[in-house]
Amino acid sequence: MNKLSFLIKFSLRNLSRRPGRTLFLIIGMALAHALTIWILTFRESSYKTMMDNVLGMKYGQEQITQKNYYDFVNGSIDPFKTIKIDSFEKIRGPITFRTQATTLIASDTNAIPVVLNGYDLKAELKYSKLNTILPKNFKLNTPFPIILGKRLAEILSVQEGSTIAVIGQAIDGSVANELFTVEKILDLGGGEFEKTYAITNLDSMQNFLSLSKNSAHVLVNFGDEISKNKISNQLEIINWKKLLPEIASSSGFMQRFTRFYAIFFSLVASLAMINTVSLSFLERVNEYRTCLIIGSPHHWLKKSMGIEILLITGFSLILGNIFILVTIGFFHLFPLNLSLLTGGEPLQMGGMVMTQDVDLRPEAWIFFSINALFIVTQLFASIYPMNIIMKKSQRI
Fold first, then answer.
1. Which 3 state secondary structure label does DSSP give 394?
2. Statement: residue 353 has pLDDT above 60
3. Contact partners, residue 270, CB within 8 Å, separation at least 6
4. Which end of the chain is more exposed for a tag (fewer CB within 10 A), N or C?
């Protein structure tokens, strides 16, 4: 029997001498490990769910516009800065074009300024979250149709089939004005988003603003980032974080805080478990002393204790990973409803009511980093108690 196999056998014998304590120690470490992964996985999944709602419904992951189309200082847009639709033929993926303008929407009883969007409905219903509230084969039928959010419709005191006046700035310098027919009123769960939600189809908006059929204001990308070398120097790519700076700032803070908390929790759990292991070692000080007397080298005893810690850590990681993977798999098949954590109240972000169901998915970087962190903290945390125990063994 070689030295390593003997050390492993010796360490396993020591662990089996207190089976109850060893089992509870492994279960405790496994649960601490699983909880750390759960915290990060739940945070990542819930964050992605919420951002998919906001970005998928309105903003996209990024937008391509003429430079300075958005005036972020004054919170306005320049309707005269347009892009050519056919110039993006080489770009593939989940993209759609929109034309938009600041307008005054007026009914018989009220008027309100709103940014009216012209959507390519076929592309929007294929790529955006609009397909969660409208059927994929939905079509607008009147020459100048409009879809309103429920709160906006209530402010204007209009119903489906009502006629409203829309006034804006045409691209040719004239005053754009037209009568639109309310074809659909959408219940988006309330919030500011529903209060300002007004869309029509792309053709109607192009006619309203005196734009050519090849002109739009923004390309909205719902997929992976578009490389800058695929667009003209006169255009710019605007990331969603620039479009939604407040959400980007708060979500960034929560992401950093959650990761710090997970690392801190993992460190504290490792220290607590090592303390329990140390107590087990202290009970065997006389045994270690006997080994020293009969000629066992110090490094041999340290290796045996190190192997015990590695075995406990290894069993704990295996058990913890299996447990958390089964848990995540369950909540992937049966998404976790966040209303359980909010007392039934809806979640809102960016003025939108979020989808409450969170589909948990395992993240490779979480499993790799937390497993590595757990092993490293266990090993480093064990150095001090191992030295103390060796000193006590020599004093007896």
1. helix
2. no
3. 374, 377, 378, 381
4. N
